[in-house]
Design goal:
With 83 residues, the protein is an alpha+beta fold. The protein has a single domain, classed as Double Stranded RNA Binding Domain, CATH 3.30.160.250. It contains one helix and five strands. The protein has a three-stranded antiparallel beta sheet with strand order 1-2-3, covered by helices on one side. Strands 4-5 form a two-stranded antiparallel ribbon.
Length: 83
Amino acid sequence: MKVLRYTIIFKEEPEGGYTAIVPSLPGCVTYGKTLAKAKEMALDAIAGYLASLKKHSDPVPSDDSVFFTTVNIRKQKDSYSYA
C-alpha cells in the first residue's frame, strides 16, 4: 500500500469558518464551519479528486517532494522588508 502526502492550507474566513485548499490538486477547494469540519471536507475532496483522476487515467500528483515554509515580512511605513 502506497501512502500519498498532500498539503492542505486552511484559511480563516471573515464571515466565519475555514476554506481548505489543496495546492497540488488544482481546483481542490472546500469549506467547513469549524477547522475539524474543514479538514474532514478536505479529506473527502481529495478522495473524490483522486478517484476522478483514476477514472480518467490521469497521473496522480502528491506532495512527497514538496517542502513548505513561511516567511515574515516587516511593514515599515511605506516599504516592506524581511523580518
